[in-house]
Specification:
There is one protein chain. By secondary structure, this protein is mostly helical. It is built from 14 helices and no strands. The protein has a domain of about 55 residues.
């Protein structure tokens, strides 16, 4: 009798211990799962910013296949595809994302962005029309401005550009786009003003510097602007200014600017040399 009671107690103890061990294992598994989510989130952030775009695509493709219901991984895949220069594939993923129950307005705006990158401006406009007008973000208005620009709806474009500028602390890119819009409309003074504003926010934005030169050249102003630039940038901008002068019919000035560009560049400036040689050959043959 004593033996059976003891056996029962031992059995109960073993079962209890086993239950405790199983409970502990479950707690450990849950803790590890939480830890993995944290680590995975950090890795996703790295992949979306400093990681190689193609590696990021591979990572998010693999992770999305393993976790097909996780919208954050699909978003990561779509963004990585854009970074990797595959907007056509990004559009397919973004279309899948916007059908997800947890999709939001930002997802649809990102779809519109991918559509623009893929050359589907009408599709992008249709997607933005589905976003409530009360949803106001920098990216939304930047895209709206670009679409209005393409439709030559200048008043709407200017209004959207202005709103976008006010919604970001780093407006250099949108100011450059706005300036280029003014450049294409022939409003060179306003384009010049906007390019200078863009450079004020980002002194390394060479595109805005080059566009500034085009705006000044179109007005017959061949003086270099007082902006921060490297020696190589100065040579490249002189080259742009020279070509602008030649296009305006100011060939002698253009020739002088080409020579200055060649002398300024710290290495051999093939493009400027070639342009100068073509100009001199044309003059001698004429």
């Amino acid at each position: 009798m004593r033996h059976s009671i003891l056996a029962t107690l031992c059995l109960t103890g073993i079962v209890g211990l086993s239950a405790c061990e199983n409970s502990d294992d479950a707690e450990v598994d849950r803790a590890l799962a939480d830890l993995n989510v944290i680590d995975e989130s950090n890795l996703s952030d790295i992949m979306l910013t400093v990681g190689d775009p193609n590696e990021a695509v591979a990572y998010f493709q693999r992770s999305s296949q393993q976790n097909p219901d996780r919208i954050d991984l699909k978003r990561g895949l779509a963004k990585s595809l854009v970074r990797a220069g595959q907007p056509d594939q990004a559009v397919k993923v973004w279309r899948d994302v916007v059908q997800h129950p947890d999709a939001n307005n930002d997802d649809r705006i990102d779809l519109a962005d991918a559509l623009i990158r893929n050359g589907n401006w009408d599709g992008a406009e249709a997607e933005l029309d589905k976003v409530p007008p009360t949803f106001e973000t920098y990216k939304r208005y930047r895209l709206e401005a670009m679409i209005a620009d393409g439709n030559e709806e200048w008043g709407k474009a200017d209004s959207f550009y202005e709103t976008a500028v006010g919604l970001t602390t780093t407006p250099s890119g949108v100011l450059n786009n706005w300036g280029y819009s003014m450049l294409t409309r022939g409003n060179y003074p306003e384009a010049e003003r906007l390019f200078i504003r863009a450079i004020t926010y980002d002194k390394d934005l060479f595109t805005a510097k080059n566009n500034l030169i085009l705006a000044r050249g179109a007005q017959g102003n061949y003086d270099m602007p007082v902006i921060e630039m490297t020696q190589v940038e100065r040579a490249q901008l002189l080259h742009t200014l020279a070509l602008s002068a030649i296009k305006q019919g100011d060939v002698t000035i253009g020739k002088g600017l080409l020579k200055e560009a060649i002398d300024t560049h710290p290495q051999h400036f093939e493009a400027a040399v070639r342009a100068l040689r073509a100009l001199e050959d044309n003059v001698s043959n004429g």
